[in-house]
Design brief:
The protein is an alpha+beta fold. Helices cover 22% and strands 25% of the residues. It has helices spanning 23-30, 53-60, 97-104, 115-122, 144-147, 167-170, and strands at 11-13, 42-44, 69-78, 81-90, 109-112, 140-143, 152-155, 162-165, 176-179. The strands form 2 sheets. The chain has a 5-stranded mixed beta sheet with strand order 5-3-4-6-9. A 4-stranded antiparallel beta sheet has the order 1-2-8-7.
Length: 184
Amino acid sequence: MRAPIGDFDTAAPAPDRLDELCPPVAEAVRSWAGAVPAEQLLYVDTDPDKADTAVFVETYGADLLDTSANCVVVAAKRAGERTLAACLVPATARVDVNGAVRRRLDARKASFAPQDTAVGETGMEYGGITPIGVPDGWPVLLDARVTALPWVLIGSGRRRGKLIVPGKALAELPGAVVLEGLGG
């Protein structure tokens, strides 16, 4: 099967490649119940040594600069309580942690979660974190530009491999909130 974006050797429905996904992502794909069928979530193999944006785009296709999104884990605090959230923004944008995220989570303070927290809490590899499969109860904040894309390239939970999914499928994730201006 050919990937709808990028220049990848092959693409396969993610349910057929569960062995390539980390356990939380594989479980989320296995139990997928959105209006978009799980077979439309595609897995593509990528070289983790070519993860730098410039090298990645040169290797896998210039169109990916405008059709990729990055997921980061944010820690928000209010009255001594900590909330972790996944934030997905276009690859060319930065998460507005001190504005949009802080306001949405009604937090006094918000910041990027430390690497060990992001990895430990998600069960995913650093550099491959994805909103698909984050822990139950987490807010999943999505930049509206990402959900509007016909196809978007996101992490797979591992540094090797990516998922290509219809943007509208992301809006159906548990805890999903679509926000204008999440990425600046």
